[in-house]
Amino acid sequence: IKSNSQTIYTFETGAILESQHKKDEAVSEYLKALEGDEGKAQNRLRSLAEKTEDLEKINAVFERQEKSDWKTLHYAEILRDLEKTGQANGILRRQILQSKNIRFLEAAAD
Questions:
Q1: Which end of the chain is more exposed for a tag (fewer CB within 10 A), N or C?
Q2: How many CA atoms are closer than 13 Å to the CA of 15, on its beta-carbon side?
Q3: From residue 90, how far is each of 8, 62, 74, 75, 80 by CA, in Å?
Q4: pLDDT value for 88
């Protein structure tokens, strides 16, 4: 899990990129920020994902990035909030099969 200052830096980088209309790069940074204090990053990604075309872009960026337990769990929560439960369960299931992190596995079971 990233430190809080790294997460803030990553989130702020995403905000700067978004203000420069570099949406894919911004989304990439927001997804990375899910590693730490995910609240702000989750809210921003959820807001962006409410548009179908943006959700497709976010999914594409997520699939290209290296997966981690916590990023996957927090992204799955966003998908569930958007009523994309099947997709959320699929990405979470893949991560569960690869993980050895007990805290993550317990959190994913909830």
A1: C
A2: 12
A3: 29, 13, 14, 12, 11
A4: 96
CA angle 12, 43, 40 (to 5 degrees): 40
pLDDT of residue 3: 55
As a whole number of angstroms, the distance between CA 98 and CA 104 comes to 11
Amino acid of residue 30: Y
CB of 38 closer than 8 Å to CB of 3 = no
Residue 1, pLDDT > 50, answer: no
pLDDT digits (tens, 9 = 90+) for 23-58: 999 999 999 999 876 689 999 999 999 887 889 999
Cα–Cα distance for residue pair 6/4, rounded to 1 Å: 5
87: Cα within 13 Å, side-chain hemisphere:
17
The pTM score is: 0.87
Instruction: Please report the pLDDT score of residue 52 as a whole number.
Output: 75
- Distance from C-alpha of 83 to C-alpha of 75, rounded to nearest angstrom: 13
